[in-house]
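Good morning C.,

I know you're traveling, so I'll keep this short. The sequence:
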Amino acid sequence: MSASVEKAGTRARPRRARLRLAGRMVLRRALVAVPLLLTVSGVVFLLGAASPFDPVYQYYGTRIFTAAEADVERTRAALGLDEPVWRQYGDWLAGVLGGDWGTSRSFGQPVGEVVAQRLPWTLLLAGTGLALAVLVALALGVLSAWRQGGWADRFTVTVAHTLEGLPTFLLGLGAIAVFAVALPLLPAGGISDAAGEGGAASTLRHLVLPALVLAVAQLPWLILTLRQQLLVGLGDDHVAAARARGLPERTIVVRHGLPVALLPFVTTVGTRLPELVTGVVLVEEVFSWPGVAGAMVRAGLNVDFPLLVALTLLATAAVLAGNLCSDVAVLLIDPRASADG
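The tokens, ready to paste straight into the viewer:
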């Protein structure tokens, strides 16, 4: 009894140590993220000041041609656009610290409300696309490495290399042309039917095509990384020893080769997150998905800096959080990893 307890304690101590390392990593990354986010927000304001577009003109639209100069100047003062950029940034930062992200000039709503209404749709699309990409990459990557040189391997590698060079928006347009026009199996965009009928079933049908496009856009790098790392793992000495013991090839691949390949695979998933954010923007625009990406495009076209800054910070925070999650996962999986990354 005492020997088993001691053995369990020996296994638990490294786990507790890795959890402490993960906690220190999270704290250190959080301390780095604060000045980084401040820098990003400041850069957006500076770019806005250097922009040739006048937010007041975008605010008025075509009415700017008939508006009196005095009215335009009063509007400029009311929006705080007559102040130097450093003062505008200071006022914005003070409002953020007080919980006020400003008012979106594009939507006529507080920025917080715009983000709260649209963020769940973006999270649904991005989460579904990423989950599909990971699951399909695991299946095809393992199959390709397992059957190296066979028709399945050659087909998978050829398709992966072909998809690497295709832009996400082109994949989206192609998917609409095939599955919504030529073969009208799925809706081409939005989240509800033409008759305005919604519900979970309708949302799921409208989610299928954009989520698949987003997943396919991420698949090539995930498949090729897993395949390559699994081939390297299957060439290790411990795998040769397992084969010498007569273990089935499926057991060797899943229990001996795959755990070694999962670490770089998880890292690759983390490094692909900036591309995932960009892909979400393009996919939402192509499929008219009501997420934050459409709001970001509208904010950019209308020079809506309060909303644009908030969404830029949100995208930056999403990338930082995703990279942190992948690094923490590697740290918890691999006892050899350190928290210095």
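Safe travels,
E.
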